[in-house]
Design brief:
The structure holds 2 protein chains of 2 kinds. Chain A is α+β, with helices and mostly antiparallel strands. Chain A contains 9 helices and 24 strands. Chain B is an alpha+beta fold. The chains are: A alpha+beta, B alpha+beta. The interface between A and B is large, with 102 and 84 residues.
Chain lengths: 463, 540
Amino acid sequence: VSKLTQKADILRKILDKLDVPYADASYMENHTRRLSKDASDIDFSVQADAGVKIRAYDGKRFHETCIQGWQPAVINAHVQRLATYLKENPPEGKLTALKIPKNKLADELAVTPIQDPSKVSIEEKTAFVTKLHEHIMGKSKQFVNCQVTYREEEEHRVFVNPYKELSSTWTGCTVSVMPFVQTSSGQTRSDFFTNFANGYEVTEIDQDELTTFLDRTVKIKTAKKITPGTYTVVLSPTVTGLLAHESFGHGMEADTILHGRARAAEYIGKKIASVKVNICEDASLPSTHGFLFFDDEGEKPKRIYLVERGIVQQPISDAYSATYGNIPKTANGKAEAFDHKIYARMTNTFFEPGKDDPKKMIKDVKNGLYVHSGSSGMEDPKGWGVQIAGLLCERIKNGKLTGELFYEASMGGYLPNILGNIKAIGKDFEIIKDVGFCGKHHKEWVRVSSGGPHLLIEGVELS
Amino acid sequence: MTPRKKNVKRPAKKAVKRKSGKKKPAKKVVKRPKNVTKKRTKKKAVKKLGKKKPDKKVPKKVVRKKPQKKLDIPSFAKKESERKQVSHPVLPWTNNPRIDMVVRVLKELTRTKTLSDWRINFVHKRSANMYIGNRFKIEDRLAALREDLTVTIYKRFPNETIGEAQLPIIATAESIIRKEIEEAATICEHARKKSYTLPTPEQVEFPTGFDTSMIETFETGDGLTIPLKIHKEMKTILTEQDVKTNCYEILSAATGVRVINSNNVDVSFHQTGVYIEVTMSAKADGDEQEHHWYTRAVSPDQIDLHSVLEQQAGITKDAARAEQSAGFTGDVLLSGRSLLDFFAPEDSVNPLILHTFAKLKMMGISQLSLGEQIGEFEGEPFTISSNPQLALGTLTVPVDEEGTPLKPVDLIRTGVFVNHIATARYAQHLDLPHTGMVSNIHVSDGATREEHLRGHNYVEIVSFSWFNPDPFSGEFSAEIRLGYKWERGRKTPFKGGHFIGNVFKNILKARFSKEIMQENHYYGPRAILFKNATVTKRGG
């Protein structure tokens, strides 16, 4: 019996103390190891967090008690206190049954990386970042520095409720490269390259891809600021992913909808884009940073269509918002850590591929921009505005990339206009190999990823 | 929200875990908690805040010798008996047998030369949160207890090099902890850098950074009475507003922090904080728009809920009737939340301040040169300081995570870059004054009264979607959630469009209000005016 299963047994016994319509318990443990090298420094750091979340639903609301570490006696004492509180403060009025799937399930799950990072010595990892750093710095004298980071994430979960007993182990490794250049006026500029895999195989970086990135970064030195205006753009899969995430990801979170904060609620079942547009959410995609075996409420993931054939479909939900919003529960109930609330959160959010050839999409643009990368975004589910920032764009002239770069542009606009102006959807598809995190506004960070194909969109606001 | 992925390690915010923040009505000079005296002597403030004698919980000043000046003497060269011994009060919550056990293990491993030096960072945090949804229904009550114990170990090698490794201690068994530390010691060899010494005991001043009554509440229960009391007050106020309250969250926490190192630094202190986030919406011409507002404070008493919620309700109604941005070039004024986002953002550091970090100098990527003006001023040369002793600032702390006593330090003085933010290592490597980590941001007041700064024809930005400049170049293009176009005293709300520019360049054309405000970890002018700035129109 594994340690995780032992924990599940103990948690089940603890839950028995709670006399409520529904209760669940989670053990959440996360480790992050980071090895970083630049011209002046090498740093090694570890972060770790572990704790237990006990939730009791009394027919009206959740009551949670969360305790750091694994201390069954302390958990017991806290749960006893909670049980007393619940007994002394019964809910008033009509009670509502929580929408939690009742299929019985017991499982112990784990990802199997091609190369287990725990079996690789620190010497080898240090040698890798050092060599990669030297390789990049040797590529161009224009690089004033370059930060190379190797990062390992390890996540253990145990979930217990009246119907389920689940445990999982997940690992993710990321290599990120951030070279710096300086303009003639002394302005520091940089760009970002990442590779992601479940194991140490992440260090097998596509050299052509890296070289293309480095060549482009050198050119950032002379990149211009974009003239604000509307442009015909071809989005790379990276930026397509950001658009999916910020537009229909946050806007379809059921807790946001429940609170009357999402315009998408008025559009469920209605057309928002052309029939070619499908936007999905799928935590089950393997080898992605948003992958989950089950969410923090014990639900196993499957593909959800947020927009299917241009029509707004099903929101993503946690148990509370599914219950009170009267919608299906999906595998999207996630918490940042054991002492944070579970909200409806994204995992992997993406546009599905279409039928168009990405090369032809560029060829079809007489005067426009190819958007290579973006760094961040912010949701606006009620106003349906979009902000995607840190865009690196390249001019397309008469169907050809010109090498003329524009640095730190931002995409804005009204979401239905953007989606309505999608003219072509590439047949390519990529979930970005990055180490993305998503917040609810400025807090509650959870791991996610995004992606899709190339998109050709007309009339996009850039500034 | 997806964060910027350019994840260069930024020592600033990570150094001091933010537990709290504060928000004031935008148009008012800082209002202190009703029961806090304006005088900043810490003992009096604490006494008033908690209505209680400053008993054992109140840190006392510890007078110690000044730090050694010869920074090239590695601490491992000193014998245990030669190190300074300082008796220091250990505050409640910051002492437990686990810390004692880890200290014992570390001392043993130091004696056996497995390690050279070490540091322990311990945080005991109790939190109580409430999540309120439609029709003011409490959806979730959450009480949590968290204890983070992090050990940083150092190993010195020949050729004046040192390796360090940081490891959080999750395990409780001594044998496992010992093994983890021994393993981490082997990592030190692979993370070698030029040698430096750890901070030694110094005089520590304890600023007013916590609310005693909150600590007492958490001591006697799960703390949920704190958010419940705030919820009841908010419900009463919000019910009176003619806007819809969609949802709100009230997060409260009380923390005990302790820093111990092998040089006999042993400092502990308390922190408290509340975070309130509200979403309201209003309709105009059938179109509903929302307004999202949040604030942090050390104590709930700092927040004048009635005034601030009334103000936010007004902003919500303006957001509903806002027109699309028509574009503008000229005077652009930041106030309230947008001003805070510029100087003291929630989840990052203003690029101007980031470039004062010694780490960036060491990396060769800082755009600023010590002793030089930050550029050619067309506007008002200003002073920016890091002020860890700001009374009730949300980043107010006596020491940083290394145990360095923090003092106010000017970073840019009247437009000249005068000091780097330098932790022990960077200070010694670059021969800079040792400032410790960055804390509250203090900006000097301007020469002009706000009403004169505002003039007649300008754009005021109330809130951004996210003001998130590129940390290295300072370039920004931030979507405007709500702004006002002011013409001859009349304001017209607008939304959309982007405020575009560069932090390093725009600041040279800025003028600052004479009136000051304090919010969250910002203390400075209530308004800033950028001359000749650009707001794009919606639609490009």
